[in-house]
DNA sequence: TTGAAAGCGCTAACAG
DNA sequence: CTGTTAGCGCTTTCAA
């Protein structure tokens, strides 16, 4: 493999000059530069980023740290869209992305901080990490620049991107209220997620606005899982047959709720309406299509990468980005062709 | 950041000894080793993989080169599952994965070979690359070890993993034939894919077996796109109203075909049956659920990574892996509760 | 405008 | 069992 040394020899100059020429420094004779570039091309030269990273002490690489990159998680392709967005921005600014997945048994032995340090990533984006994850604390307290998805921690080196989950939930619940629903149940995610707390708050606030009393027993923990949500929905519908609508903190859980409703022989939306959250691909393909609060995960990934790299280059103005959500009304709440 | 030099000083030994102790060489006094490990832990040492990579001339990193990591491609999460599988194996054997996406404009300027060389990846896995991609040729002819997904190229440094696409297609068509269909149309992918050719072959062979004449005009090019497939299905059904079944070379195209069939007011499967290929998540959620030839993409990714790393370590016996497919019969071909 | 020299953190002969 | 030395490919003072 060609090195700048080879080029230097071929061009009859020093390696210093080659380095400067190739890196676009101004203090190099234009003629020399042309010659060097020409030779580099001929010799099929590729710079060695390892060597460069070693001396410059930065790798132009960021780490994407995700949890749950399993075969099952593909259903809810949240992670994938984040990843696509991150990748998009990162490659626009000529960085690379290395993927760390915390589900893989081997890497469990290492903390996130170690993972990042060893690969000498310049910064990291964290996605799908639970707020009670012990390694999370460690990494945000380290000196590694981090951007978190949906976890509101901010410091000198830490920022986050999220959506307005309170408002998002409100939109969903207001929609149900506007349709006349009063007995609305909520299937929330597990408590170890910031979004769960926020969405619950939105749920409550919307009820308050409409002067509908909040009944705690109508809130269940679906743990962001389809099956768990199905069980909980089944339980709720049985104990509280007055329920006419579900607000679910994720589409996956909404799928579970829909299954439960159908199992009990009830119709959607005539007997029970359902609203989800996320707008996963599946949402528009279910029967009936699922109304949901859409968040643009690709954009979240993109903005996270952008924020991180701005932080790395010292030109981040704010460390926080809050994106918008959009309520998508489909037939699981409302049939307009009756 | 701590280096082995710091450890050496603290332990009162040479850096060589530290290196050896930490890397588990046998020729180091057990007591010394313990002391060194202890100090390393105290000092919160993380090895610098850049430095190690530089001197050892290998990075313990592989590149995953994919095309089409766009927001739209999430629907068909083929890429994501491959990625998950690759990541799984890679982390089991303590490698890292860096992602190169060819859609991102910036990287288009660089050939795949350059991408790999610059990051000094030890090898690469290529997915979703068209066989007429000019950079593909270059990279397989380079000295970079490669494993291709669904592209049958084999050499000293190149291997591939695929499924038996001829057989897969046969299974699907035999199923249709067994149900009594004789006028079967096929919506194939674009020709720049190995799998298209193979699936067409399977289609023909199955017809031959059943002594049903092959009619070329019943084969359309859906380009692996939902919309294009819909158009083509519409055209076929209009020109050849005798068609009672579609075999589609991807589920995405099958979705398109189903739309077309519904538009014409025909029922699935009573009037027209549909079989897809891939078994994407959506397949079981369509109305009616889609019969399809399932391939385990997670396994494909996993096996590709395994093959690549075996090749890197010189212990690959074969450079080819062919995985199995499975026909999943759902209601788009057959209703058993009539 | 150019070159010599040092050094990033690590591994690998080689010698003791 | 341990240390000395050289060097991976590159950037960066400092001098010329």
Automatic annotation (TrEMBL), chains A, B:
Residues 2-56 form the HTH lacI-type domain. Residues 3-50 form the HTH cro/C1-type domain. This is LacI family DNA-binding transcriptional regulator. Keywords: DNA-binding, Transcription, Transcription regulation. One of its GO terms (biological process) is regulation of DNA-templated transcription. GO terms for molecular function: DNA binding. PROSITE patterns: HTH_CROC1, HTH_LACI_1, HTH_LACI_2. InterPro entries: Cro/C1-type_HTH, HTH_LacI, LacI/GalR-like_sensor, Lambda_DNA-bd_dom_sf, Peripla_BP_I.
């Amino acid at each position: 493999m060609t090195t700048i040394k080879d080029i230097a020899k071929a061009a009859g100059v020093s390696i210093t000059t080659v380095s400067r020429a190739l890196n676009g420094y101004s203090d190099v004779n234009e003629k020399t530069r042309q010659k060097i570039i020409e030779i580099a091309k001929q010799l099929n030269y590729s710079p060695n980023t390892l060597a460069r990273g070693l001396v410059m002490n930065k790798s132009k690489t960021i780490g994407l740290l995700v949890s749950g990159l399993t075969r099952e998680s593909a259903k809810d392709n949240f992670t994938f869209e984040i990843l696509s967005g991150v990748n998009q921005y990162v490659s626009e600014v000529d960085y690379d992305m290395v993927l760390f997945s915390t589900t893989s048994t081997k890497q469990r032995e290492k903390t996130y901080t170690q993972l990042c340090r060893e690969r000498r990533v310049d910064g990291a984006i964290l996605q799908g990490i639970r707020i009670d994850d012990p390694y999370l604390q460690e990494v945000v307290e380290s000196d590694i620049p981090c951007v978190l998805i949906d976890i509101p921690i901010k410091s000198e080196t830490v920022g986050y991107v999220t959506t307005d989950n309170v408002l998002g939930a409100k939109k969903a619940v207001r929609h149900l209220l506007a349709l006349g629903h009063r007995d609305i149940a909520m299937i929330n995610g597990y408590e170890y997620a910031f979004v769960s707390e926020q969405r619950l708050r939105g749920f409550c606030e919307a009820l308050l606005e409409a002067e509908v009393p909040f009944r705690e027993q109508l809130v269940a923990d679906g743990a962001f899982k389809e099956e768990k949500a199905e069980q909980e929905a089944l339980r709720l519908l049985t104990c509280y047959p007055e329920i006419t609508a579900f607000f679910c903190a994720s589409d996956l859980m909404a799928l579970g709720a829909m299954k439960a409703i159908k199992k009990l022989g009830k119709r959607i939306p005539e007997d029970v309406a359902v609203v989800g959250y996320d707008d996963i691909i599946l949402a528009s393909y279910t029967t009936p299509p699922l109304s949901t609060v859409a968040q643009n995960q690709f954009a979240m990934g993109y903005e996270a990468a952008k924020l991180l790299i701005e932080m790395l280059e010292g030109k981040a103005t704010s460390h926080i980005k809050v994106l918008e959500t959009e309520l998508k009304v489909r037939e699981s709440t409302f049939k307009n062709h009756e």
